[in-house]
Amino acid sequence: MPKSRHQLTAECFSRDFNVDDAERFLKDDLRWRKSTKIDKLRLEDFADIASSYPVHIDTYDKNGAPVITAISGQWDLRQAHLSGQGQRAQLFLDKVMDEAANQVRRAQHEGKNVTRFHFLLNLDGFNLVQHGCPRCFIGILTFLRSYESHFPGLTDRIVIFNAPQTLQTLRPLVRSAISGHTRRHLKLFGTNKAEWQKYLLEFIDKDQLTEDFGGTRIRYADIA
Length: 224
Prior knowledge:
The chain is an alpha/beta fold. The protein contains eleven helices and five strands; from the N terminus they run ααααββααβααβααβα. The protein has a single domain, classed as CATH 3.40.525.10.
């Protein structure tokens, strides 16, 4: 039988010999799922958010594990909060993470050796006005807390690249907001394409990645 998201996360905690954390997660997560009605959230139409803040889950690594991809330059976090869409954007991201976790489960059902997913963030276009404003940063921290609380241990690699020098001002605060387990899976690259592209191609085929992520794939849905 394929493992549920709860079982996968509990197993991740158990590998660190932290059974108490696994039990705490299961209880807290069940309460969260009930309060947010996450099962109904899967069916909700987020076209208004997805068009302005695109995130894709249509890429897979060499073993069949799902890969979430996003480009920060396509997101105007400041506008999201000014327009009152901040909370809805957070629900959309929760839905994305939940879908990636469910894709892991489906891959297991197909007999693939997949236990986690990856998250790739291209920081091309990042700037402190649109992404580093006080409300923006609170939104980023909210997302990190949601991931740590409801999807911990389910990401194999978190790869952030094209990080500008201005990001260094936020890095200590972001690192303090995530657990040691998450930090161990986090890889940060600057703007040297040769470096981050080489790393990505170690576990993802080039034809799976679009040009923005160092690949050759054309995502026809993105063509106007």
